[in-house]
């Protein structure tokens, strides 16, 4: 996807002088930065593109160098720098033909920083916001196509965080807290892979609280939508052990959320 962006060298004279503190022709600076980029010397490339802008701020190649700098920082895993550079490009050149790519760089720079579900998910939410912003602004681009796939993965990751906390609360018998976490998954992340387990855990937690109608409803919703799931088998067994069956309570919050399935 990053290869969609075209890297262009400037035709012009070159020099063997490498003194970064001496003003040099724009084509020399840009082509040296591009050579560093192609050699995977990404930090040097980013600095070179930054130098293009510093020495030749009014050159047409200064604009190109700004977005190239953001890309080079991304390639060097300097994601915060990449975000700053890309956002600056967006602010300065909102109508530029490469602005969609700048939004894409911001989004994937957040996305690459996503950590395991056991850690804080602030950056995951930032990634989701940036990806959704890209799709909203540039829905018909190839960048948006890739972003849509990453949105699904990011949402699944956020749901996984809620599940991890919910399981911990359930294990500690903090049942209301557990239910609230599983409810978030069912309400806000309905298309993720975590929904079947969330419904089963709701069945389990509601049974432990003695709220049998909600437990039966959770199992019924689970059975209707995921009839072959092992989570449904486990929920059915839990109810059966308590002489109960999956059954919908029409007043349940779950029916309001999943009302189209009944």
Automatic annotation (TrEMBL):
InterPro entries noted in UniProt: BamD, BamD-like, TPR-like_helical_dom_sf, TPR_rpt
NCBIfam families in the cross-refs: OM_YfiO (TIGR03302)
Role of this protein: Part of the outer membrane protein assembly complex, which is involved in assembly and insertion of beta-barrel proteins into the outer membrane.
Keywords for the protein's UniProt record, in alphabetical order: Cell outer membrane, Lipoprotein, Membrane, Palmitate, Signal, TPR repeat
UniProt subunit comment: Part of the Bam complex.
TPR repeat copies, ranges: 63-96
Pfam families (alphabetical): YfiO
Protein name per Swiss-Prot or TrEMBL: Outer membrane protein assembly factor BamD
Family: Belongs to the BamD family.
PANTHER family, per the entry: OUTER MEMBRANE PROTEIN ASSEMBLY FACTOR BAMD, SOLUBLE LYTIC MUREIN TRANSGLYCOSYLASE-RELATED
């Amino acid at each position: 996807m990053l290869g969609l962006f075209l890297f262009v060298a400037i035709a012009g004279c070159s020099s063997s002088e490498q003194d970064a503190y001496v003003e040099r022709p724009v084509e020399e600076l840009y082509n040296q930065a591009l050579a560093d980029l192609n050699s995977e010397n990404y930090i040097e490339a980013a600095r070179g593109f930054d130098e293009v802008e510093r020495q030749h701020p009014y050159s047409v190649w200064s604009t190109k160098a700004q977005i190239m700098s953001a890309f080079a920082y991304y390639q060097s895993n300097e994601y915060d720098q990449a975000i700053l550079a890309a956002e600056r490009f967006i602010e300065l050149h909102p109508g530029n033909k490469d602005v969609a790519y700048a939004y894409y760089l911001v989004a994937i720079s957040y996305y690459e920083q996503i950590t395991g579900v056991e850690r804080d998910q602030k950056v995951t939410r930032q990634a989701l916001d940036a990806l959704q912003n890209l799709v909203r602004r540039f829905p018909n681009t190839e960048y948006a196509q890739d972003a849509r796939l990453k949105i699904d993965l990011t949402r699944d990751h956020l749901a996984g965080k809620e599940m991890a906390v919910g399981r911990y609360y359930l294990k500690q018998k903090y049942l209301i807290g557990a239910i609230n976490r599983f409810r978030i998954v069912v309400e806000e992340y309905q298309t993720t892979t975590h929904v079947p387990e969330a419904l089963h855990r709701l069945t389990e937690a509601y049974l432990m609280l003695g709220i049998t109608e909600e437990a039966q409803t959770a199992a019924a919703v689970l059975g209707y939508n995921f009839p072959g799931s092992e989570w449904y088998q486990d929920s059915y067994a839990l109810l059966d052990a308590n002489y109960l069956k999956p059954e919908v309570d029409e007043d349940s919050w779950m029916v309001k959320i999943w009302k189209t399935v009944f």
